[in-house]
Amino acid sequence: MQTLIQSVLTLQHNRLQTVDVLLDDEQIHTIAPAGTLSPLPQQQVISGQDKLLLPGFVNGHTHSSQVWQRGLIPQLPLELWLANVFDSTPQQVEQFYWGAVSTAVDTLLSGGTCLMDHAYLIPGQERETIDALVRGYQDVGIRAVIAPLIQDLPFTAGLPSGCLLPQSSSPRSASQWLDLMEILIAEFHDPDCGIYIGLGPTGFHRCSDELLQGCAELSDRHQLCYHTHLLETRAQHQLAQERYGISAVEHLYQLGCLGSRTSLAHGVWIDDTDIELLASTGATLVHNPVSNLRLGSGLAPVLKGLQAGLNISFGCDGAASNDAQNLLEVIKLGTILHTVSDPDYKNWLTPEQALQMATVGGAKGVNLSDRTGSLTPGMDADLVLYNLNHPSLLPRTNPLQLLVLGRPTEVVESVWVKGKPIVKQGQMMTIDIHTLHNALRHHAVEISLFSPQHRAVESHYHQVMLH
Amino acid sequence: MQTLIQSVLTLQHNRLQTVDVLLDDEQIHTIAPAGTLSPLPQQQVISGQDKLLLPGFVNGHTHSSQVWQRGLIPQLPLELWLANVFDSTPQQVEQFYWGAVSTAVDTLLSGGTCLMDHAYLIPGQERETIDALVRGYQDVGIRAVIAPLIQDLPFTAGLPSGCLLPQSSSPRSASQWLDLMEILIAEFHDPDCGIYIGLGPTGFHRCSDELLQGCAELSDRHQLCYHTHLLETRAQHQLAQERYGISAVEHLYQLGCLGSRTSLAHGVWIDDTDIELLASTGATLVHNPVSNLRLGSGLAPVLKGLQAGLNISFGCDGAASNDAQNLLEVIKLGTILHTVSDPDYKNWLTPEQALQMATVGGAKGVNLSDRTGSLTPGMDADLVLYNLNHPSLLPRTNPLQLLVLGRPTEVVESVWVKGKPIVKQGQMMTIDIHTLHNALRHHAVEISLFSPQHRAVESHYHQVMLH
């Protein structure tokens, strides 16, 4: 069935314009001047009055299972925080299902239609974990890229001078992980259903060159997104110097891991040379401003990156390091945070630029530029209709500025993913939201903070990073 | 009538505890271990199950009439932004009424029970402006301190080397402003009704010493709060050097303007010596993190200030520089922002500290420590009850961390101000919210951006600050 949205405000060519938009099954069919498309029989007609229609945002980086750890782990630097994340990661397949559902709902209700789940795996139940995530995303109806988090070096190897700490063994070798990834890709990668598998080596800090390179080879062969953490913390920067003697970005480049299908989460500690190199490869940097402040990771050089032509998108990061999964919050902070790094206001991000990063930039970061992120005929209808009459978007000034710089709440009226209505009148159409909330209310997470592992790492961290 | 809240989670002595709380008319009567207070006839009984009870926050700095300019003015440094604020300030008394109502509602629904309105005045209708604000706050039932924004130097005098720009004349001399303030205090200062007048000279940058000092004298004589902007921007820092040759803090100190009733908005550019001096006087710094990023003012040295014993509270600042008036958003950003200035996580703010700043710290900043900001018998019942079953506060982990570090939405279930229920089941009890929203939807603001004044200031700003 076709859907006609009449006289709706949109952002076209960086300007607010009122247009008619016709959706045809899965795609955007026509965009025409307001009042020029007349409804035909059997078309569903939606009034665009007091509404704003934007392409769906892409959440470029999250870890859906951390929903269970929201509000759990105190503010600590990544390296100490991680010890606690591992110790409290859910271990039931069903929790991964609900984590995916919850993350998908939060994404949709904050303007997103697509997410990158850099997914934890239950050891020994990797296939079942991915199966649960896929079920969750398909039940909700969001577009999802799932990049299983894999690593073949132990946790402590990811710390500078970490070789001094007791080492645990890795559950699998690089080649075993790569074999598993082949299986997961074959079983779960399903673009027609809006489910994509990506290659997700944790980061150089906990991956051998063999694993990093093997993932790049699989990404090339299957034309899949390559997603990895990059220089999130000062400690990782220091580790790269210890281990490689060159920048981690240069190292990844030499291994052949950087290209237009690569997206790199964080990049807080990249320098000017790294920025140039990243930009030249066509890779995407995913900026996670809330998480970066929450973990004290620092300020990613976003303005410099954009000036160098680097594609930058936004990510929420997991709910253990950003205790909300709200894209509008992340976009707001990402828009205003970088004023502290540059006093010249001509360089500051505008709401229009931020929306471009969240949509077009986000789609490129998950290797889906040809499908989503743009209100253009022929693209999939991944669209969000905002209610400009909501009190949090009053008074009537600049709707884009209110959306990006305000604190919009419950403003998402309708969402379509591949043309299918997923949200109507602010309500989820595909799942029973109460079942989700009951699951969150009653499932328990094993809380185990400040374990012996944490204490060992803390003592090491103090010595290496704070003295 | 007495109200008994049974078995409710609270923060007592920096620890979560479940207690019974009895409210007696205007005040907190008793706090007892959970289950020990039995309901008496004629007591209203409220179940505290799955609820969190906290003292109301204080919004330590805002400008209520800027509600009309929300989403209007682009991201610009304060000095250029201000030219546009002046050019688009509402000029109708009724708009000031609705600005107060809107700000009060946003404050209450984000956990606040008291605010400091550093209030714009309609020239020639100063009395009528304050009257409208008082009506607005009383109709809603919030506790409000109104400090009229007064200045006797022209706008351009507030810019470094601003003497080079054309000067407009000030509408009143210092002594005329002080006479007016006497009249406003006599007519409107009414602690029994929860309405307080404060002295609000705009800031050293646009006030003569005579006005700054005269306000201090009135503050002493009437025991009122003294509230002023302080070193919000680098330009103001430069101006203080030009004009006084010493720090603006030292200058205010020498004029006798700093004391325990003084609260200073921003203080982004105070140095270590200023911090020591401010702490020694017992003054309060009001931290406005969202506004500071939105205007690119910089990072206030909050961690250093707290370590020096300086009282610091939170402010939203006006809606033209923080396009939302949500205290929970401000508290979150204020809690995580300062990790970028100090890598040692032992110094980072905890949710408990942030809540202390927003309540006890906020009350001290508006000279109301003896009345509000604390869940203690004998204090006024300015209390907020949060619904921990709301999806944005799930799953069940640490409720304080979810409240401060999450993105809570519609979690305020009940609010009492001086014992009077103002919000019940998330709904305003005192005013018709639809009338407010209709007013916001239909009143127009005269939009006049980038006037000749703006362009003159911009050219000057570029020359003085960016070259």
UniProtKB/TrEMBL annotation, chains A, B:
Example of a GO MF term: hydrolase activity, acting on carbon-nitrogen (but not peptide) bonds
Gene3D superfamilies, A to Z: Metal-dependent hydrolases (3.20.20.140), Urease, subunit C, domain 1 (2.30.40.10)
Keywords: Hydrolase
Domain of life: Bacteria
Residue stretches making up the Amidohydrolase-related domain: 53-421
Membrane-crossing segments per the record: none
Coiled coil (residue ranges): none
InterPro entries reported for this sequence: Amidohydro-rel, Metal-dep_hydrolase_composite, Metal_Hydrolase, MTA/SAH_deaminase
Name of protein: Amidohydrolase
